[in-house]
């Protein structure tokens, strides 16, 4: 029974998302998704920060460097997707 309810809710949510996306502009969709995704990302970074608690975790500077190198590399790669080319070719 619980599985059936979940499937119904899942299908309803999918339908709601599809019908909502048909009525929203690309700008509205960007804002809606950006708000959701940025908030999720910020929450995950906050949770990552919980690993700094030495009472529960053991780590060294090398571990910390690897973690933040990976995060910073992904941030740079993602940010670069939003940049427009600086030098456009024109005839």
Task: Write down the overall mean pLDDT.
Answer: 86
Total domain count: 1
What ranges have pLDDT less than 50 throughout 5 or more consecutive residues? none
Oligomer: single chain
What fraction strand?
A: under 5%
Structural class: mainly alpha
> What radius of gyration results from the CA coordinates?
21 Å
Strand-and-helix sequence, N→C?
HHH
Query: Major sheet: size, sense and barrel closure?
Result: none
Query: What overall geometry do the principal axes of the alpha carbons give?
Result: flat
First-last Cα distance: 66 Å
Q: Percent range for helical residues?
A: over 70%
Number of helices: 3
SS elements, strand count: 0
Question: What would you say this structure looks like, in words?
Answer:
The chain is an all-alpha fold. It has one domain. It is 73% helix and 0% strand. The protein has helices at residues 2-23, 26-49, 61-80. It is built from 3 helices and no strands.
What can be said about this structure in brief?
This protein is 73% helix and 0% strand.
Main features:
single chain; about 90 residues; mainly alpha; 3 helices; about 75% helix; about 0% strand; flat
What's the helix and strand layout?
Elements: H1 2-23, H2 26-49, H3 61-80
